[in-house]
Design brief:
The protein has helices spanning 2-9, 47-50, 90-96, 101-113, 115-122, 133-143, 147-154, 158-168, 180-193, 204-216, 244-251, 257-264, 302-313, 358-368, 384-390, 406-410, 441-455, and strands at 15-17, 29-30, 39-40, 67-68, 72-77, 83-86, 198-199, 220-222, 238-240, 271-279, 293-298, 323-326, 341-349, 376-382, 425-427. It contains 17 helices and 15 strands. Strands 6-5-11-12-13-10-14 form a seven-stranded mixed β-sheet, with helices on both faces. The chain has a two-stranded parallel sheet with strand order 1-8.
């Protein structure tokens, strides 16, 4: 949608072809469990969308998009019955970090204060000439570190380390791998700068707002039109929101043989095992602070989170997986019937895993919220292969658009990035920089590259 909007703004006639009957991909909202309970199919909490350098330029509020924030961006409960809470206000967060408050503030204050410049730097290709080199250099010195090493260097307390481990685990990397701390830092900075909100009514609201803006700009959207070959499209310029594997399948001989070999080597990332819940009441957290946040990270200490993510990176299934939980109905009454609630939980597993993680996920929730299972009215389990069936871009349950290894982060999916070996074909999916997340920047950059080359 972002790519289409940029091209429409440039005066081109745009048509969008969506494989499913409802546009949005992994940013859709559907009644997955019981009537009246609205669940986000994929993305739920969207800090990168509310802080996107591209989306913030668009009048999406005029197309029905509004944001809802929790009282705090994220909570991380511990076994002592308390929780570490990442507060939105930086001064409050400094107090919450206790003895590590000054260390945390020194790490994030500059990018928080300069979010617009910072977001433009990190939500783009890694190979670029920075406009704010000093800001990016200070971030980069910490971002390249493995998250476990980062915590040992920067924090003294187990509480601060546990909270940061949860942020870093969003990377789908072992916490002993380089760059895992970078994802944690970006999410931590975003929590203070723009928050971790949800769209009112669900993630579908942002997809619908973008679609509304595109149609207003003259673009057309065709749903239920799965493209099996680019030869079906007579257009002069084609941008593909697909994985490298799918691009190989639909572009075929229109791509050069060396480029096809490069795409074939691109590796998908780990998968997600997800459960949507219809609940009779809010999750009964032991740490009541968890009711202040839409997002809750379950994993205990830094070492426990690292063990879970390390197992996933080695192709195993953790007995006590790191679990991400969202509870949007605490703040958005449109998600469930009156008095009822929704929740969404997932853990990381090897790509295309067939192991049922339901019991392990619910054991982790029960660990920090005894009696949770008694609140469950219905559940919808989505294995990695179920996620791929719902959205073909989620190859083997990979929600990141490809493994976030150093090589695939710098050259994503190749040194060409958005361009391909064909002047008419471009890639604009999360397999291009800056990677996964609802931010539109992959499409934004891909469209600008396509326009520059096409005009020449």
């Amino acid at each position: 949608m972002a790519a289409a909007i940029v091209l429409a703004q440039a005066g081109l006639k745009i048509e969008v072809f969506e494989a499913e009957e409802q546009s949005g991909g992994a940013a859709r909202t559907l009644p997955l469990t019981l009537p009246g309970f609205m669940h986000d199919v994929g993305s739920a909490v969207l800090p990168m969308a509310v802080g996107s350098p591209f989306f913030t330029r668009l009048p999406l509020a005029e197309h029905g998009l509004s944001w809802i924030h929790g009282d705090a961006p994220v909570a991380h409960p511990l076994d002592d019955g308390t929780a570490v809470v990442l507060e939105r206000d930086l001064a409050d967060a400094e107090r919450a970090f206790g003895g590590d408050g000054k260390a945390w503030r020194s790490i994030v204050e500059a990018p928080v204060r300069n979010w617009t410049a910072f977001a433009a730097e990190v939500l783009g290709p890694m190979l670029h000439l920075p406009r704010h080199p000093f800001l990016l250099a200070r971030f980069g010195m910490n971002a390249v570190l493995p998250a476990r090493a980062f915590c040992r260097l920067r924090f003294k307390s187990t509480r601060a380390s546990a909270l940061f481990a949860g942020l870093a685990a969003h990377s789908f990397l072992s916490l002993d791998e380089p760059l895992s701390s970078g994802v944690g830092m970006v999410l931590g900075v975003a929590a203070h700068a723009v928050g971790w909100p949800v769209p009112r009514g669900g993630a579908q609201a942002i997809s619908d707002a973008l679609a509304g803006y595109l149609k207003e700009s003259g673009g057309a959207i065709h749903v239920g039109r799965r493209i099996s070959s680019l030869d079906e499209l007579p257009q002069d310029l084609v941008l593909c929101d697909v994985s490298p594997r799918q691009l190989l399948a639909i572009a075929g001989e229109r791509l050069s043989q060396p480029y096809r070999r490069t795409l074939s080597r691109f590796q998908p990332g780990p998968g997600a095992f997800k459960i949507d819940y219809a609940l009779s009441e809010p999750i009964p957290w032991k740490a009541k602070e968890c009711l202040r946040a839409i997002t809750v990270h379950l994993g205990g200490t830094l070492e426990e989170v690292a063990e879970s993510e390390g197992a996933m990176a080695m192709g195993r299934h953790a007995e006590r997986p790191f679990v991400l939980v969202t509870q949007p109905s605490l703040f958005d009454s449109a998600r469930a019937p009156e008095g009822k609630h929704t929740a969404w939980a997932y853990c990381h597993v090897p790509n295309s895993s067939r192991v049922d993680m339901t019991e392990r996920i619910e054991n982790q929730i029960e660990r920090f919220a005894p009696g949770f299972r008694d609140c469950v009215l219905a559940r919808r389990v989505s294995t990695p292969l179920d996620l791929e069936a719902q959205n073909a871009n989620l190859v083997g349950g990979d929600i990141s658009g490809g493994a976030m290894s150093v090589g695939q982060t710098i050259f994503r999916p190749s040194i060409r990035q958005y361009a391909t070996s064909s002047r008419d074909i471009y890639l604009c999916s999360s397999s291009t920089p800056p990677g996964g997340g609802v931010h539109g920047m992959c499409g934004f950059y891909a469209a600008h590259v396509a326009l520059r080359r096409w005009r020449r």
